[in-house]
């Protein structure tokens, strides 16, 4: 199994470059039969990255895409290549963050259109197009507050527990928290369902954590509400973050190892499920 972990930005030390997902990289690399490539863009925005642009003809089995850009992280050629990758059976996980962060994913087909943004592709429920987290004033909706970076949040399985949420003889109920998660939902007519929800600590409103896609003849897909579920800082805040992160971190993931254990299990499940397991 060959997995590509890919950000939508060129390397810049004070940003969410791929090195800030090192714990995920190490975990996946430690799984039997898994080979991981972790990389940032090799070209500036607008120019086609040689790996992303050739993805459909590559030998990668999965793409885990971390859309950490401000909206220009993928061009039309790259979006077409990612769509073709899934069309030929590649597994695709797409995640972003609050407001318009990562809005380049809107052109990736159904797994991209599952993501809602502030300035484009808003949530079809007008009542949800309002601020949830109000503490960080410069971040507008969607921005669901599931807790501090470094803490864990309680999640709930929707319907029959999806394979991504299976844990020993039970169901996973924890993932890393984040003060302003993005919005996701099931696109009209899609062969997909919401598999997990969280609850805002500000408004007590439930919001979608993950949407799973199973289209006949295509690779499986997952839309995830925020890349912070995967980031080092959210697994262990002692590992650091970019200087523009202003919210004080928590320490729940460090104090309670069960949160990290469940997070790692979720990643193990995701790698297996995207490849048809």
**Low-confidence runs:** none
The helix fraction, in percent, is 10-25%
The amount of beta strand, in percent, is 15-25%
Structural class determined from secondary elements: alpha/beta
Number of helices: 7
Give the helices and strands as they follow along the chain.
EHEHEHEHEEEEEEEEEEHHH
Q: Which term fits the overall shape?
A: globular
- Per DSSP E runs of 2 or more residues, the count of β-strands stands at 14
Q: Which value, in Å, is the CA radius of gyration?
A: 17 Å
Straight-line N-to-C gap: 11 Å
Q: Strand order, biggest sheet?
A: 2-1-3-4-14-13-12-7
For the biggest sheet, the summary is: 8 strands, mixed
Mean pLDDT: 97
Please give a handful of descriptors for the protein shown:
7 helices; globular; 19% helix; 277 residues; 22% strand; alpha/beta; eight-stranded mixed beta sheet
């Amino acid at each position: 199994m060959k997995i590509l972990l890919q950000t939508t930005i060129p390397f810049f030390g004070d940003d969410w470059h791929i090195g800030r997902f090192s714990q995920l990289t190490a975990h996946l690399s430690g799984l039997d039969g898994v080979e991981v490539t972790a990389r940032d863009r090799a070209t500036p925005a607008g120019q086609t990255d040689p790996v992303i642009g050739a993805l459909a003809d590559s030998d990668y089995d999965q793409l885990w895409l971390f859309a950490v850009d401000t909206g220009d992280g993928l061009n039309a050629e790259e979006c077409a290549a990612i769509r073709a990758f899934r069309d030929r059976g590649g597994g695709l996980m797409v995640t972003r963050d609050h407001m318009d962060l990562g809005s380049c994913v809107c052109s990736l087909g159904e797994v991209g259109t599952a993501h809602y943004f502030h300035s484009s592709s808003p949530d079809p429920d007008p009542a949800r197009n309002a601020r949830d987290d109000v503490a960080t004033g410069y971040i507008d909706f969607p921005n669901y507050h599931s807790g501090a970076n470094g803490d864990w949040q309680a999640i709930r399985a929707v319907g029959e527990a999806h394979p991504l949420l299976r844990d020993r003889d039970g169901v996973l109920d924890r993932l890393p928290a984040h003060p302003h998660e993005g919005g996701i939902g099931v696109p009209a007519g899609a062969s997909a369902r919401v598999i997990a929800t969280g609850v805002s600590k500000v408004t007590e409103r439930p919001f979608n954590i993950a949407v799973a896609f199973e289209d006949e003849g295509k690779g499986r897909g997952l839309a995830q509400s925020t890349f912070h579920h995967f980031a080092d800082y959210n697994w262990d805040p002692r590992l650091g973050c970019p200087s523009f992160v202003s919210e004080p971190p928590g320490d729940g993931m460090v104090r309670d190892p069960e949160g990290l254990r469940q997070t790692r299990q979720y990643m193990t499940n995701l790698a297996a499920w995207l490849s048809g397991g």
